[in-house]
Amino acid sequence: MAPSSVLLAILSLVSYVHGHVVYPPDSQVLDSDGHVRLHASQLTNVCKLPAPLGGYLSEGHVPKGSRNSPSAPSVGTLKAKLIFVDFPDTPANDTTQTLYNDLVPGSQAWFKTSSYGRLKLSVDSDMTKFYRMPKASTAYTFNRFGAKQELYIKDALAVSALDFRAKKYDVLYIMPTRAAVEITFSPTKISPTTFAGGIIPNIVTFGQDLHLKYGFKLLNHETGHVIGLPDLYPSDSTGLPRGEWVGGFDIMGLINGTHPDYFAWHKWKLGWLNDEQIDCVAAAGSSKHSLAPVEIPGGVKAIVVKLSATSAFVVEVRSELAPQVVNNTACPLGMVVYTVNTLGTNSRVPPILVLNTHTNLPGCAIDRGGRLTTATVDFSRGEKSFKSVPYGINIAIDGVRNGTYDITVSWNGMVGSSSAAVPGSLSPSPWGGFPKGIGSAFGEDSEEDGNRKQTELNGPLTED
Ligand SMILES: *[C@@H]1O[C@H](CO)[C@@H](O)[C@H](O)[C@H]1NC(C)=O
Ligand SMILES: *[C@@H]1O[C@H](CO)[C@@H](O)[C@H](O)[C@H]1NC(C)=O
Ligand SMILES: *[C@@H]1O[C@H](CO)[C@@H](O)[C@H](O)[C@H]1NC(C)=O
Ligand SMILES: *[C@@H]1O[C@H](CO)[C@@H](O)[C@H](O)[C@H]1NC(C)=O
């Protein structure tokens, strides 16, 4: 181990360098106040919150090869089979080609763009016909609380006589004719289905919300579950609007949102970002960072402040450089700040919660993300800092170069209430004020309010 004088010498270099810094392996890097600052390039696991035991549909990272790994790959080629169905009461009034066009090319392009080319969706589609289901479209009661999805799947597998024994697929997509208005929504079964033709690990049964609300990104949302991502919208039982937790910043929250991409946190979990593209802050102090926009390849994509074994505070940047397939807004861009809770589920506790830096504004696109559509800190609109009192974090934007935000993060070491996020418990907030001296250098601060909820864990095998 190097003596501390050497580490401090390394430090004085670090303080003035933006972007990547090469640190000696296994060293602690100290800032000028003697605080420890870690960088992901050699301390990758510190901020990589592990998935809680028992399931991969959480914000936690699942080690490769673990029993809880998703059954489908998020890097490489994801192999899908697509079939079309119609019903005795609603024979097809469209063609397999028009439905294919609505669903496939766009979602393939989305995965290619969002994953920076790391995930290829290959779709083997049976364009020959609509397989006629044995029962009327009404028989499957696809309303939200009573869909007979198992029966629907069983019937579709029987009429199409699929044979998956020779060729393996990661997911089966079942697409109904548009005439079948009763097939309203699109749940995903993420547990294996065994049938006469073999085993299929995951099945998405599409509904008319593809046409009526969401478009092809519905496939990217549902397939997001297949590769391990949870829902980020509050479930209907909460009575909260869909955009309540993450606005339109991630299609696992709102498929038709303003910024229809995945969060950098998701891209890291999926292996679309390298560990070197995450700046990990794991101890109190100040540090400088350069954040490149999430929607384009290259650069550091997130600053992660590790709050506890199950929670983190994350900063990322959205930009006008976003390719069209992941852009759906003229709303404010800039820095997005959110917390991650690996114990969260969509029944009550947000797995990800975007902090609203403009609680005084009503939002910019109410039907595409609600109030959080103005949650960003947008340098181009003269906004230069954000202070989160509950987490003791100050963020100052030092400048923006072609979409890249140069940022100073100061953390006083507080962890908010997230470290107390025990399933089933509702604990009072232990948050206090921001200590004197750290926050005073920042102008135009805004603060998010501190409401948080806690919930029990549950792991539904069908998601929508
Ligand atoms: C098929 O029927 C549905 C439901 O009535 C309708 O919305 C759709 O426009 C029809 N498509 C064609 C091509 O007529
Ligand atoms: C992003 O999409 C919005 C809405 O469609 C549009 O107004 C804006 O110009 C787009 N931005 C870019 C850079 O294409
Ligand atoms: C987007 O989806 C939400 C949730 O389903 C819906 O309430 C809203 O009307 C949709 N917005 C648009 C513009 O279609
Ligand atoms: C700005 O960034 C974009 C995307 O990375 C790049 O294509 C472009 O050349 C850059 N422009 C300048 C002036 O550096």
UniProtKB/TrEMBL annotation:
Region ranges (Disordered): 422-464
Protein name as catalogued: M6 metalloprotease
NCBIfam families: M6dom_TIGR03296
Ranges in coiled-coil conformation: none
GO process terms (BP): proteolysis
Keywords: Hydrolase, Metalloprotease, Protease, Signal
Domain of life from the UniProt record: Eukaryota
Signal peptide boundaries: 1-19
GO molecular function terms attached to this record: metallopeptidase activity
